[in-house]
Every structure is written in C-alpha cells, then in structure tokens.
Amino acid sequence: MSNFYKDNEDLRFYVEKYIDWKAIVEVLERNAEDPAAWQQTVETYKEVLSTAGEVAATEIAPRARQIDAEGMHLQNGVVVAPKVHTELFDTLRDMGMYGLCAPQELGGMNCPGVLYFLMGEVFGRADVSVLVHYGFHVASAYWLLHFSIHEGSTEFDADGRIVKTRFQKPIEDILAGKTWGSMDLTEPNAGSDLAALRTRAIKQEDGTWRLTGNKIFITSGHGNYHFVLAKTEDKNSLTALSLFLVPLKIERNGETVTNAYVDRIEEKCGHHGSATCSVQFDNSEAELIGKEGEGFKLMLKLMNHARLGVGFESIGLAQAAYCLARDYAKERRSMGKPIDQHPMVADYLDEMDVTIRAIRAIAVEAAVAEELATGLELEESRRKQRGAVMDADTHRRIKRLRRRARFITPLLKYAASEQAVYMARMSMQLHGGNGYMKDCDAERLLRDSLVLPVYEGTSQIQALMALKDNISWITKKPLLFLRKMALAKLNAARAEDEIERAVYRMQYMACSAQRAIVQRVAKDKWSEATNGPLAQVFDRFFKDWDPKRDFAHGQLHAERLTRILVDVAAAEALLDQAKSFPERRELAARWVEKAEPRVRYNLDLIENTGNALLNRLEIAADDELTAKSA
Ligand SMILES: Cc1cc2nc3c(=O)[nH]c(=O)nc-3n(C[C@H](O)[C@H](O)[C@H](O)COP(=O)(O)OP(=O)(O)OC[C@H]3O[C@@H](n4cnc5c(N)ncnc54)[C@H](O)[C@@H]3O)c2cc1C
Predict the structure, then answer these.
(1) 375: left (phi over 0), alpha (psi -120 to 50) or beta
(2) Is-contact 517 550, C-beta < 8 A?
(3) pTM > 0.90: yes or no
C-alpha cells in the first residue's frame, strides 16, 4: 500500500537512526528511566508516523484534486466545505488525530511536537491546504494548554499530571472534533507591521474585556476559538498588544449566541481546502491570556512554532513536486532517450533532491531544539508554581536550545518556502506543456506553493529577523565573533577532510558577510555622527540608533545574508551527520559542491553592491521631508 512516510528513505533516516528520541521522551513522559518503556513509546511514535504516511497517500492525496476544484464557500454566514473534505476530517477525528500533542489526562496521545512536524511534511506532500486546516486543530489545543501553564492557570498533581486547566472546555471541544482554533493578527492596514494593528480591547468595570475590530486573511477562521492580538493601549508599539481568546459563539443565559462572525471568505489562487476568513469583532467578549502588554511575546512563541510548521509543510510540497517531476522524467522521452537522461534535466532533478534533503536536515535540527526547549520551559513553569527552581545546568541547556531554535527557525521558513515555490515551478517546467494543464498536479502544486513565502511572516520579514539576531549577537560579543571568524579561516586551511575544509570556507565567508554589513552600518553612522557639533560625536554614534535609518545597508542585504546562513547551516548539519553515519557523506559532498559557489556569489553582492540604490532612497527620503516641511 502506498505510504508517504515509508517510501521516503531520507525522512526515515531521521526517525529510525538520527533523532535522539530518548532525550525527547525524558522531557515528555514519566517513563524514561525504564528502557523498555521509553523504547515502547518510541515504537508508538513510529507507528503513528507510518499510519499518517498511509492516510496521506491513500486518503488525502486522492482527494486533493477534488478539494482544489470545489473549494470552500460562505453560504448564509456558514462556511461550507466540499463533501470529500468533511469525510476526510471525520476520518482524522475518528482516528483521534486531533489530540496528537495533547496530554493523555485531557484525552490526547501525548506525542511530541517533532512528530507533529514530521507528520506535517507527510500530510503536506498530499495536500498543504488539508494539512493547514488539520494543524489548526492540533496546534490550537497545544497552545491553549501551553499558555495556561505559562500563566499558571493549570493545576498538576504530585506526579506532574494535569488536574485541571483554564482552557479545559476549548481543548476538549477541539479534541472531540467539534471545532478548532485560529490565530488572528492581520488587519486590512497591518500585516507585517503588527505595531500598526487597530483592533482594540477595552477592560470593563467588572474586569472582563470587550474587543472590537476586523481581522482579515484568517486561516480556518470559521472555528470557534480565536487567538486574537489586540491593542490594550493607544500607542504604536508592540508592547501595547495583548493576547485574547475570543470564541465566535458563547453561552449567555443558557443560550448559544453570536459573539463574533465570519463576514467573508477569500477566493484564492490556491490552498482551496483551507478557508481564509475575514472576521468581525464588535464589542465581543474576550478573555485575556497572560498579562496585558504580553501579547506580542506570547504570539511570537506561537508564530515561531507555526513557522517551523510552514517549514515542514513546504518540504512536503517540494517533495511532492520533486516526485512528480522525477517520475514523469523517467517515462517521457525526447530525442531518443528519457528526458531524465539529458544532462540539464538530470541536473535539475539532482538539485531538487539534494536541496530538499539539506533543508530537511535543518528542519529536523530546529524541531528537536524547539521540542526540548519548550518541554523544559514548561517543566520550569510547573516547578515555579511549586516554589522549586530548575538546576543551573538545565537552565543553561534551555537557553542553548532556545538560541539554536531561534537561529534556525527564520532560516528554515525562508529557505523551505522559497524552495517549494521554485521546485513547484521546475516540476511544471519539466512536464512541458502537459504541466500547464489542469489535469496535471504540477499546476495545483505551483498555485498552492505561492502562499508559503507569504503567510506566517513573509520571506523578507524572516530575513530581517535573521539579520537582527545575527548582527545584535556580533555587536554584543565582538571578540567571540572575531575568534569564530579566525578559527574558520584556520580550520579551512588545516582540516584534513575535503568536505570539512569546504564547510569551514563557507563559515568564513558567512562571517565576512556579517562583518561587511556591520562595518558598513558603523561607517555610515560614524559619518552621520561627525556631521554636527564635535563635542557630541560619540553620543550621536553610540546612543542615537534608529533601526529604520541606521541599518539600511543591513536591510538591503538581509535576504542575501539569510541565503548564506541557510547554505552554511545545512552544510554543518549534513557534515555532522556524515561523521556518525558514513552513508550520509555523499549527500554532504553533493550539497557543499552546490552551496559553496552560491555563498561566494552572495558575499560578493553584499560586499560590492547597493550603494547607488541606497543613495537614491536617501535622496527620496530627504525630498519627502522637505516637501512635508514646505
Ligand atoms: C492564504 C493566507 C492565509 C493567511 N492566514 C493568516 C492567519 O491565519 N492569520 C493571520 O493573522 N494572517 C494570515 N495571513 C496574512 C499574512 O500573514 C500576511 O498577508 C503577511 O504577514 C503579509 O502581510 P500583508 O499582506 O499585510 O503584506 P505587507 O506587510 O503589506 O507586505 C507587502 C510586501 O512588503 C514586504 N515588506 C513589508 N515590510 C517590509 C520591510 N520592513 N522590509 C522589507 N520588506 C517588507 C513584505 O515582505 C511583502 O512582500 C494569511 C494570508 C494568506 C494569503
């Protein structure tokens, strides 16, 4: 029987050989001391993945074309899904799939988030829009519990089992398949710029909250439970934002009444199995989650998780595009041979295969780091409630894991989503004219892929995040940075292994790119600081930093730097694997061969281009200022 997990050797490598499941079980379960028990737990994870692979190949994929053709519609205020879509979700509910990551005490399977992400790839290969709607079940239940533990509103017994939790009813509703959740950030005038949100929540005299505003493009926004980001202070700042849980329907005086509603769903280019809703809140009852002003911080936790999810979703779509193209190219003949025997086509297919596997390497690394960091943070919150503290070593481990997850997440979201679009296009290209026709899956994959670099933070926003984290690390620890750079250069000259030498060369080029950006930013700032009274030069240089004005050079090259960091992170991950698993060496060599020239090219662009463009932007900004003051 067809199975999207079992037929994927590279994915199985991680599950069967690479992932340190024991470390994950230790954080998640209470049976890790007993080898037979934790090994049994891991066997269960593998069975779940294998079942997911079968469901993806035999239930989701065969329905994808019909779901795409019929789409979701709003009829008399109700979102109506195609019959095949409803059947599919009934199957997932009956299999208990909505409780994948919920604890057993709440009726869930208590599986790790890593398993959910890996399933994301497998489901995404079948249909990304189905995966996304499924994700808003599992992830919403997970985050309701997570936020409750974070704010201290979940009670545990002495064995660490949940006795009760603040969001018990919503979680139970989701697990029972009655409804699901959504995350509501975007508004007509604010997407990337969250500080500009207008939805407003007002505290009532009795301490309850009411919320008013319009959220747009809300995926699965026809579910009952909405995580809504709203202003609780009238200022244009991320610290003015708070997070609320707002149900569409509430119970009032024994009756179910409308609290908020979907007034439109979008007609989209793809992603037809996922409803994209406009939601109206009008003096709606809202429950504050966490503290006032903490909304952006909490939403960012959820979004970082969701960005990892989009990473795996994108890998799934890229894998689908690659398999489709590979199988077609084997059969289709031109000029006397199958097209996969023509060097150019063989090169495209090789690039697709290697790139998917390289991105999967950083995806798994990020997912494991996120899993362990989140699990240990939750344990820390539980201990705090009991008045206990985490030991210093574990605390340091959490920080290390969190840093790693934070470093890779934007790289993964950026690279996986951009590559999914590229590969969907190449898949269509390799199908020739047939690829452009509606009865070929290549055109659906291309339409479905286009949103991946847009939602959960666009590629440009991911690049800015990567830039910010890297540059602020260098400015905080300049000596450590210079040491890292010197070591990379030294190792590139003295390492005996050819692949290792190439990875060090790439690391050195990555450091050179970062140094070029920092030097240029500092130079511009210095020349501006010296352009005024001499006595205040140092004050102007060190104190008066404006990210929009002073980091233009960094912003200009943020995507190029991100591409370099992706190439290097994947090379490091594959080299690391090759050291313990010699059968992975060939993959590492193939990746390095492709990635190193790209790194060199992007470094060249960072070091040598952009001055004229930045000058033009500066002149335009000055002109605008002059026009305003005239
Ligand atoms: C199918 C779909 C589903 C979605 N689901 C959800 C959901 O569930 N919940 C939700 O809240 N939102 C959702 N969104 C909205 C999505 O997150 C936003 O569209 C996205 O964040 C971009 O915001 P925007 O559309 O306002 O574009 P803008 O922010 O206006 O950006 C326009 C362009 O400018 C670029 N840009 C903006 N600022 C900068 C900058 N400082 N530097 C460089 N470039 C910049 C962007 O990268 C983009 O290319 C969804 C969108 C779609 C299409």
Answers:
(1) alpha
(2) no
(3) yes
